[in-house]
Design goal:
The complex is a heterodimer. Chain A has 17 helices and 19 strands. By secondary structure, chain A is of the alpha/beta class. The radius of gyration of chain A is 21 Å and the shape is globular. Chain B has a 7-stranded mixed sheet. The chains are: A alpha/beta, B alpha/beta.
């Protein structure tokens, strides 16, 4: 019987089976940030077990509130910083070199096909874009991961999504994933891995695949997964060129993680997305999704562009394409946070920053901040945001605020119009 | 091992997410106790009054997909520091469920029919819930009305509850 990607990864990392349905896996890399890690560190210290399983397999960043906004957030950063130094964690990204974890860590080459990754952050599912099993966990799982390099998961049931057809201009990975979540619901993939395949995925860049896998958790998915292919190899090449004689050799090695033809799935769902329109959310759940057309004209107070979903260079290029030579509407404010320092530098070098600033956009340093209403652009009660982030939960970007999730293209068009608008309005 | 049972808080809604259970702005706290006043502060639920309704409870009964969204263990902790060590639902988001057991607490799944029966019989009434772990049975009571609901607590989940959580279990075993 054939195996899915997740089943292959589980088999290769199995440490123990404490019961019939649970697998304790060895974890290749543990990612850490300053919101969920400090309590784990403090608990390890209190238990007299202040050590790590392997400092080279732990990567840490301060990204949620950075630079610190107050004493409490300064303290969280300090706990992680002091710990990284004390434990010899060399891949620690402090203020100035820090970015949104799920954009920064792939960019640094830390994610490989077939790997197991955990982090105390639900959007860890992003890294499945590389053919890895990557799952968000709580602080206790993180703590055990840091100490022992293991984590327990139930057997990975997989839902396969075959995405066929061709995306129309102005329709992106974000629209696809919003559509998928709208179809299956926020409880539609609970306890399941979401494996994305088909010609639309094959044609996507790694950035787009990350956008897609990033929101698997919004349908309850444990990890998103895209099979590794030449696009994956090209993205990773600067980091793996000494490991392989050629790109083809790398592809041959990584291809063993691809799902078998006769793999057994929980469900196989096919969507032809050829007629898909730009999508956006309404309400307070990410499965409340409508075509942008039906929400057009909805007044917004703030547009936010960034996050682990859509703060990568590809996203900023799309925003610049819509905004070039235009001004944002007087009635809105626009906050844009490039997801990493590298993205920021590329945006500068490519002249995108000029386009944003001419349009009237406020550029901030790379941070998660506004997405979860922690800093850097919090909404006032009653305000409405158009956002390229991943959650429209009640109060998510500020108590009493409302969030409409959408693609960077739609967010850019909305910034110019002052109301929710389709990017075709500006790009023809 | 923790103690389980107490007065029931009924939350008649599916998909209650972790931002509603504990808003992100409180994640800057580095102690669990500091979260206590903010439990369910942003819950969107008709008739729910946070300060009045979270006081002195031991058990939450709710619908489907409780704890969806963020991985924050602050959600189970905010329940824990308010004395709520048991959540009963049709199903849970994976990370939230694991976080509960990892903390030695119970995330108990009952059938949609049983959950509906609980709401019909007890919601809006002063209801107590007591638990037996061997065999695993929940007993709900309000006045003369009672309802017994057997539940599943096996293997790894049971081991975590008996060990008082995943850190102690893993530290001994791996």
């Amino acid at each position: 019987m054939g195996k899915t990607t997740a089943e292959k990864i589980f088999e290769a990392h199995l440490v123990d089976k404490p019961d019939g349905e649970t697998s304790v896996l060895s974890i290749d890399t543990v990612f850490c940030h300053e919101i969920t890690t400090p309590i784990a560190i403090n608990d390890l210290v209190a238990r007299g077990k202040d050590r790590v399983f392997d400092p080279s397999r732990i990567k840490a960043v301060i990204d949620h509130v950075t630079p610190a906004k107050d004493t409490l957030t300064a303290q969280q950063g300090k706990i992680v910083r002091d710990w990284a130094r004390r434990q010899g964690i060399r891949d620690f990204f402090d203020v100035g070199r820090n970015g949104v974890c799920h954009a920064l860590f792939p960019e640094q080459g830390f994610v490989r096909p077939g790997a197991t990754i955990i982090m105390g952050d639900s959007h860890t599912c992003t890294h499945g874009a590389f053919g890895a099993f990557a799952a968000g966990v709580g602080t206790t799982d993180l703590e055990v991961g840091i100490l022992k390099g293991v984590c327990a998961f139930k057997a990975p049931r997989t839902i396969r999504f075959n995405i066929t057809g061709t995306l129309r201009p102005g329709v992106y990975a974000k629209d696809v994933i919003l559509f998928v979540i709208g179809q299956i619901g926020v409880n539609g993939a609970t306890n399941c891995v979401m494996e994305f395949a088909g010609p639309v995925i094959d044609a996507m860049s790694m950035e787009s695949r990350m956008t897609l896998c990033n929101m698997a958790i919004e349908a309850g998915g444990t990890s998103g997964i895209c099979a590794p292919d030449m696009t994956t190899v090209e993205y990773l090449w600067p980091f793996i060129k000494d490991e392989f004689a050629s790109r083809e050799a790398a592809l041959a090695e990584y291809s063993r993680w691809k799902a078998d033809e006769d793999a057994v799935y929980e469900r196989v769902i096919e969507y032809d997305v050829s007629s898909l329109e730009p999508m956006a959310t309404f309400g307070y759940k990410p499965d409340q999704v409508k075509p942008v057309r039906e929400l057009a004209g909805t007044k917004v107070d703030q547009v936010y562009i960034g996050s682990c979903t859509n703060g990568r260079i590809e996203d900023l290029r799309i925003v610049a394409e819509v905004m070039r030579g235009k001004k944002i509407a007087d009635s809105v404010r626009v906050v844009l946070s490039p997801a990493t320092p590298t993205v920021y530098k590329m945006a500068l070098a490519e002249g995108l920053v000029d386009v944003f600033m001419e349009a009237g956009v406020c550029l901030t340093n790379p941070t998660c901040g506004a997405c979860l209403g922690m800093s850097n652009g919090v909404l006032a009660p009653g305000e409405v945001a158009a956002s390229t982030t991943n959650r429209n939960f009640n109060g998510r970007m500020g108590k009493g605020g409302t969030v409409h999730l959408m693609s960077p293209a739609t967010a850019a068009a909305t910034a110019l119009a002052g109301v929710i608008a389709n990017s075709s309005l500006y790009t023809g | 091992m923790k103690t389980f049972g107490g007065r029931v808080l009924f939350l008649d809604r599916s998909d209650i997410n972790t931002d509603e259970i504990i808003p992100a702005k409180y994640l800057t706290e580095v102690s669990k106790e500091a979260l206590a006043p903010y439990l369910l502060e942003d819950l969107k639920l008709e008739g729910f009054e946070q300060k009045r309704d979270i006081a002195n409870r031991g058990v939450v009964v709710t619908r489907a997909n409780f704890g969806c969204g963020s991985s924050r263990e602050h959600a189970p902790w905010a329940l824990e520091v308010n004395g709520i060590h048991v959540v009963v639902a049709e199903n849970f988001a994976r990370i939230f469920r694991q976080n509960m057991y990892n903390c030695g607490m119970l995330a108990i799944e009952l059938s949609p029919e049983t959950i509906s029966a609980l709401f019909e019989k007890f919601a809006g009434r002063e209801t107590g819930c007591s638990l037996s772990l061997t065999p695993p049975v929940l007993t709900f009571a309000s006045g003369a009305d009672t309802l017994e609901a057997p539940f599943r607590l096996e293997g790894f989940d049971r081991a975590l509850v008996e060990a008082g959580g995943w850190v102690d279990y893993a530290d001994k075993k791996y």
